[in-house]
C-alpha cells in the first residue's frame, strides 16, 4: 500500500507516514470498497481478526480534532460540572427559611447539603459499568438530574426533599467523575493544562457562587427558597440541551470499536476486525460490572499516590462544604447579616478561586520547560505540582486568618478577605493534583479520579454534619482553627510528591514509570496511544 506524508497542524514540520488508503468515517455509514479494507495487523479471520488502531495523524482521533471543537467540548463539560456543584450549595442559601417552613433544626436542614454531596460518592460506583460510553451517560444522568429537582420545588415534607437531594447528587456525580476522562481523551499532555485547570476548579467555584444567588432568591418575598429548585431545573435543562448538541463521544476504545464494526459491515462480514482495546476486554456484562466497580477501590487501596492525594483533596473539599454550615453562624447569627448578605461572604473565596485558576499559565510554563528538557519527550507528572506547593501554604494561612478575625468587633471585610488566600490555595491544589493524577495514570485516569471523587465527596458530606456542633462548642475561632490545623498537616504532601514522586511511581504496577527514548515516539505524541499507556492497560486488566 502506498504512503504519503502528513504535515502537522499549524504548518509545523512534523511529518508522519500514513496509509494513503485510510478511510475517514463520518456519522453516516461509510462506503468502502473491498480493496480499501485491511492495512491492520492480523489476517482478518475470526480467530485472528484485524486489530484496529488509529493511523498516524488520523483525523478521527480525538487528539487530532480542531482546537475549536476541543474547547467547545471543554466548556460544555465546565457548564455541566458548574451546574451540579452549584446545586450542592444554592440550597444552603435558604437554610434559615427551610428551618422555619419545615420546622426543623439547622443540623437537620443541613442534611440537604450532606446527602447531595454523599450522592457524589455513590454516583461513580453506580454508573461505573456505563462509564465507557461518556455521551450516553452524560445525557441520561443530566435528564434524571433535571427531573429530580421537582421534588424540592413541589415537595411538601422533609423526607421528599432529602430523598430527592440524595438522588440528585447521585445522578449528578456523572459529570464530576467522567469529565476528567473526556479532557484526557481530547487534549494531549502538553495542551491539557488550561482545560484541566478549568475542570478541576469549577467544582469548587460552583459551591461558592451557589450561596450568593441562593441566599437572595430565598429571602425574596416573591420567590422564596423553593425557587432555587426551579432555578436548578432551568439551568439543568440548558445544560442538557447544549450537551445533546455539542458533546460527541470521545472515548478512544469506543470510537475504535465503532470503526471496527463499520469495517466489518463494509466488508460484508467476510473479514473480522477488533479494536486494539477489545482484545483482552471482558465479554460478559458481569465481568464488565465487576471490573469497573472494583477499579476505583483498587486505586484507592493499592496506590499510595491516589490514597494520599485523595485524602488531601477530601480535607480541602470537606472544609469548603463545612463553610456552608459555619458562615450562617458567623455572619448571620453573630453579625446579623441577612441570607443574601451572608451569601456575599463567599465572595472572598470566589475571588481566590478565580485568581488561583489564572495561575495555570505560570504552571504551564514550568511544565513545558520540563517537557522540552525531557529525554523521552514527556515531562514527569511531578512537573504539574509547582502551584500546588504554593496552594498548600496559602490554604491554612487563609483559614487561620479567618479564624482569628471572625470576632464581631473586627470589621467583617477582614474576615471575608481571608477567603482569598484560601480560595487561591483550593484552586491550585485541585488543579495540580488532578493534572498529576491524570499524567501518572494515563488511559485509566478516570478510574483513579473516581477514587478521588468518592473520598472527597465523603468528606464533603461529613464535614457539614459536625461543623455546626463544633462551632457551637468551640467557638468560631477554635473551630475554624481545627480546619486550619488539618490543612497544615497536609501541606507537605505536594512537596513530598514533587521530590519523591518518581520513586513512588517506580514501585507502582499501574502508574507511569517506564520512560522510552524520544525516538520511540512520534514527534506529536497526541496522534497515537503511547506504548506506556497500552502496557498500563494490560497490567490493569491482569490485576483486575
From TrEMBL:
Residues in domain Major facilitator superfamily (MFS) profile? 73-505
UniProt cross-references to CDD domains, sorted A to Z: MFS_Tpo1_MDR_like (cd17323)
Localization, per the record, is: Cell membrane
Where does it primarily localize? Answer: membrane
Q: Which Gene3D superfamilies match?
A: MFS general substrate transporter like domains (1.20.1250.20)
Looking at the record, which segments are called Disordered? 515-534
One term under GO cellular component: plasma membrane
InterPro entries (UniProt xref): MFS, MFS_dom, MFS_trans_sf
Question: Its topology with respect to the membrane?
Answer: Multi-pass membrane protein
**A Pfam family this protein belongs to?**
MFS_1
| Membrane-spanning residues | 71-88, 108-128, 197-217, 229-247, 297-324, 344-362, 383-404, 410-430, 442-466, 478-498
Q: Which residue intervals are annotated with compositional bias (Polar residues) in the record?
A: 520-530
Q: Which domain of life is it from?
A: Eukaryota
* A Gene Ontology molecular function term of the record: transmembrane transporter activity
Keywords for this protein? Cell membrane, Membrane, Transmembrane, Transmembrane helix, Transport
PANTHER family on file: MAJOR FACILITATOR SUPERFAMILY (PTHR23502), MAJOR FACILITATOR SUPERFAMILY (MFS) PROFILE DOMAIN-CONTAINING PROTEIN (PTHR23502:SF186)
Q: Which family does it belong to?
A: Belongs to the major facilitator superfamily. DHA1 family. Polyamines/proton antiporter (TC 2.A.1.2.16) subfamily.
The name on file for this protein is MFS general substrate transporter
Amino acid at each position: 500500500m502506498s504512503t504519503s506524508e502528513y504535515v502537522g497542524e499549524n504548518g509545523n514540520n512534523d511529518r508522519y507516514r500514513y496509509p494513503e488508503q485510510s478511510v475517514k468515517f463520518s456519522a453516516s455509514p461509510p462506503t468502502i470498497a473491498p480493496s480499501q479494507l485491511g492495512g491492520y495487523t492480523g489476517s482478518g479471520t475470526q480467530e485472528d481478526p484485524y486489530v484496529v488502531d488509529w493511523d498516524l495523524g488520523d483525523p478521527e482521533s480525538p487528539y487530532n480534532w480542531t482546537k475549536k471543537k476541543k474547547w467547545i467540548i471543554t466548556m460544555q463539560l465546565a457548564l455541566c460540572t458548574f451546574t451540579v456543584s452549584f446545586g450542592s450549595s444554592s440550597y444552603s442559601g435558604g437554610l434559615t427559611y427551610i428551618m422555619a417552613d419545615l420546622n426543623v433544626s439547622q443540623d437537620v436542614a443541613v442534611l440537604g447539603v450532606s446527602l447531595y454531596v454523599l450522592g457524589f460518592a455513590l454516583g461513580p460506583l453506580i454508573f461505573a459499568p456505563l462509564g465507557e460510553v461518556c455521551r450516553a451517560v452524560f445525557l441520561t444522568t443530566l435528564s434524571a438530574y433535571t427531573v429530580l429537582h421537582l421534588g424540592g420545588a413541589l415537595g411538601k415534607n422533609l423526607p421528599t426533599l432529602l430523598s430527592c437531594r440524595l438522588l440528585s447528587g447521585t445522578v449528578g456525580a456523572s459529570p464530576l467523575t467522567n469529565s476528567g476522562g473526556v479532557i484526557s481523551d481530547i487534549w494531549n499532555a502538553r495542551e491539557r493544562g488550561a482545560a484541566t485547570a478549568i475542570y478541576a476548579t469549577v467544582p469548587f467555584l460552583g459551591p461558592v457562587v451557589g450561596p450568593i444567588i441562593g441566599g437572595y432568591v430565598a429571602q425574596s418575598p416573591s420567590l422564596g427558597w423553593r425557587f432555587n429548585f426551579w432555578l436548578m431545573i432551568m439551568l439543568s435543562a440548558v445544560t442538557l440541551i447544549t450537551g445533546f448538541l455539542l458533546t460527541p463521544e470521545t472515548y478512544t476504545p469506543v470510537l475504535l470499536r465503532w470503526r471496527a464494526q463499520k469495517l466489518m459491515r463494509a466488508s460484508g462480514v467476510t473479514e473480522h476486525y477488533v479494536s486494539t482495546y477489545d482484545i483482552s476486554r471482558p465479554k460478559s456484562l458481569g465481568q464488565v460490572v465487576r471490573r469497573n466497580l472494583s477499579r476505583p477501590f483498587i486505586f484507592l487501596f493499592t496506590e499510595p499516590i491516589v490514597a494520599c492525594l485523595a485524602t488531601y483533596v477530601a480535607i480541602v473539599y470537606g472544609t469548603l462544604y463545612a463553610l456552608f454550615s459555619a458562615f450562617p453562624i458567623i455572619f448571620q447569627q453573630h453579625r446579623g447579616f441577612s441570607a443574601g448578605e451572608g451569601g456575599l461572604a463567599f465572595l472572598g473565596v470566589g475571588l481566590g478561586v478565580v485568581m488561583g485558576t489564572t495561575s495555570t499559565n505560570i504552571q504551564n510554563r514550568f511544565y513545558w520547560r520540563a517537557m522540552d528538557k525531557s529525554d523521552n519527550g514527556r515531562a514527569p507528572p511531578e512537573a504539574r505540582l509547582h502551584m500546588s506547593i504554593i496552594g498548600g501554604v496559602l490554604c491554612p494561612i487563609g483559614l487561620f486568618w479567618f479564624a482569628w478575625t471572625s470576632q464581631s468587633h473586627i470589621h467583617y471585610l477582614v474576615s471575608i478577605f481571608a477567603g482569598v488566600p484560601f480560595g487561591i490555595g483550593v484552586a491550585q491544589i485541585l488543579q495540580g493534583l488532578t493534572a498529576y493524577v491524570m499524567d501518572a495514570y494515563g488511559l485509566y485516569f478516570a478510574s483513579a479520579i473516581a477514587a478521588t471523587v468518592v473520598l472527597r465527596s465523603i468528606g464533603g458530606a461529613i464535614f457539614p454534619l459536625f461543623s455546626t456542633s463544633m462551632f457551637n462548642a468551640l467557638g468560631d475561632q477554635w473551630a475554624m482553627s481545627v480546619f486550619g490545623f488539618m490543612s497544615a498537616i497536609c501541606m507537605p504532601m505536594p512537596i513530598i510528591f514533587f521530590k519523591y514522586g518518581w520513586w513512588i511511581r517506580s514501585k507502582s504496577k499501574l502508574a507511569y514509570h517506564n520512560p522510552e527514548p524520544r525516538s520511540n515516539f512520534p514527534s506529536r505524541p497526541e496522534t497515537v496511544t503511547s506504548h506506556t499507556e497500552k502496557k498500563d492497560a494490560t497490567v490493569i486488566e491482569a490485576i483486575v
